[in-house]
Amino acid sequence: MDRPVRKAEIRRETKETDIYIDLMIDGRGAAAIDTGIGFFDHMLTALSVHSGISMTIRVKGDLDVDCHHTVEDTGIALGQALARALGDKSGITRYGTFYIPMDESLAMCSLDISNRPFLVFNCEFTNQSCGGYDLCMTEEFFRAFAFNAGITMHINLMYGKNDHHKAEAIYKAAAHALKEAVSYNSDGSTLSTKGVL
Length: 197
Fold this sequence. Notes:
Layout: E1 7-13, E2 17-24, E3 31-34, H1 38-51, E4 54-61, H2 68-86, E5 95-102, E6 105-113, E7 118-122, E8 129-130, E9 133-134, H3 137-149, E10 151-159, H4 163-182
Parallel strand pairs: 3-4, 7-10
Antiparallel strand pairs: 1-2, 2-4, 5-6, 6-10, 8-9
Helix pairs in contact: 1-4, 2-3
């Protein structure tokens, strides 16, 4: 069966950020990330590689203020790109759930690509930041991403001590849940009693 190439390009410019994203869902997780925040680049690279979704992300943000606008706006644009690449969402598995251990930390993400955006985020960090990345922005990133992609997303950090490990487990759990949810189902049907998503 010939399937469409699921890809999208997004350019989002505001007075606070200038963002370019080129995304390909079936692109084998090739990542080229430059947000100006090293730890965030590391997390987005993990999201790309582990989901199998190729991402080119270039961001210029007002980092002289802090990382808030850069991280949140990247979530907005990435969610919009995923939604555009998925189109009407027909034929996808729709649901994904995954647990990821990262040394002493364990995180879980369960999601539904449903066009009913929602985020439940139960994760606590000990420190304020990892490098130039404020850890509180993890929730803001996933909220912006979920709401713009049309995803119901539940993220739970089961336990952990090291904040780097906690954050990385969260991003990788989300990546693997996404990989499962965007995969094609067996018969190409829309997995909904309504007939549409």
